[in-house]
Amino acid sequence: MNKLVSAIGVATIMLSGCVTNTNKQVGTEVRLTATDPQATPATVEMLNKINKREHLMVGHQDDLSYGHTWNEEAGRSDMKEVSGYYPDVCGWELGGLELGELANLDNVGFDDMHKHMQEVHKMGGINTMTWHSYNLISGNNCWDVSQSGVVAAVLPEGVKHEQYLKWLDKFATFVTSVKDDNGEAIPMLFRPYHELTGSWFWWGADLCTVDEYKQLWRMTHEYLTKEKGVHNLLYVYSTGDFNDGAYYLERYPGDDVVDVLGFDIYQYGENLKDAQQRFLNQLKLEAEILSPIAKEKNKPWAVCEAGLESCLIDDWFTKVGEVIIPTDARYILFWRNAHDQEKHFYVPYAGHSAAPDFKKFVESTRVKVQ
Ligand code: BMA
């Protein structure tokens, strides 16, 4: 444990028992309030459900929409076929919506997504969204980082501000259109501008200043909640890798605009066993840094994206479980199983050699730990 982590640990002990002004103490339970003061009751309920942590929830990106070698087949789910459980958390990607496309950048039709979001909600699951919106200066996708200045351009003084607000209008229309049987907008997690500590998206660390990043976030929160009447979202701040709390928080836009904390983390590298050890060490380190920060802020935290492409190690999931289940992480979401790219999958499909381990991992998450 490094010095900063122990310092945060001490601060946490000193602060334990305190609650932020907006959260309410009900009996012994702290009821969290959402950062959107007008968040719907169902949205506040979802925040508290996440915060309660009956067990570590397991998520999968696009799970109901497609899987390894299949696409849009009713009732199917690679996670269910291997583990017996549909995901607790289902991830969705909105990139392309802003251009008026009928399908997102991975070819998931927005109508299908809309229907699946309702299915997830009906099953008691949680929907979470990313939005890899296009680069408004070049017109290329969000991975075009050939020029900085996109963030500056979409901020209030910027040349692309009005156009960006139109994109946010489209986003608002979609997310408020997904309703439950009573006609209420379904609560969802929204994880904008993620992996901000890296520099592979137009909002990445080298592409904007700390202040611009914070302004972008705050503008988005404010516009959606105050101008567009979007009250069914919880906002998730999720970085890429970090090695200390100061770096994690450097671009943090504020307690009043973030509901859930998290990070995205992947295993990379050629020598699989070494890479696995590095990954597990990093996962442990990031959990040890973030857990006390989240506790001090009275906010739940999660591993918002994780994975090893192609599930190359047969005991990978139980090893991840050994690190993450004993922590107070609320969920871990594994990345997508593309139907049209043979090697692009992060949860084993039926018959894959890592399938028994994944099942064992998911079953072990059902055991109540705290
Ligand atoms: C990446 C890959 C891409 C995909 C993108 C957005 O990690 O899965 O194929 O387009 O996420 O979902």
Describe the structure.
- The radius of gyration is 20 Å and the shape is globular.
- The protein has eleven helices and twelve strands.
- With 370 residues, the chain is of the alpha/beta class.
- It has helices at residues 3-15, 41-52, 78-83, 110-122, 150-154, 161-177, 210-227, 245-249, 272-297, 316-324, 355-365, and strands at 24-26, 29-31, 57-61, 66-67, 70-71, 89-93, 126-130, 188-190, 233-239, 260-266, 301-307, 331-334.
- Helices cover 36% and strands 14% of the residues.
- Strands 3-6-7-8-9-10-11-12 form an eight-stranded parallel β-barrel. The chain has a two-stranded antiparallel ribbon with strand order 1-2.
- Helix 9 (272-297) links the parallel strand 10 (260-266) and strand 11 (301-307).
- The longest helix has 26 residues, at 272-297.
- Helix 1 runs parallel beside helix 9 (272-297), helix 9 packs parallel to helix 10 (316-324) and helix 10 (316-324) packs parallel to helix 11.
- Beta-D-mannopyranose is lined by residues 93, 105-106, 132, 336.
H/E topology pattern? HEEHEEEHEHEHHEHEHEHEHEH
Any idea what the radius of gyration is? 20 Å
Bound chemical compounds: beta-D-mannopyranose
Which of globular, elongated, flat, extended, rod-shaped describes the shape?
A: globular
Number of helices: 11
User: What is the beta-strand fraction?
Assistant: 5-15%
Helix content: 25-40%
Sheet with most strands: 8 strands, parallel, barrel
Q: How many strands in all?
A: 12
Overall average pLDDT: 93
What structural category do the secondary elements indicate? alpha/beta
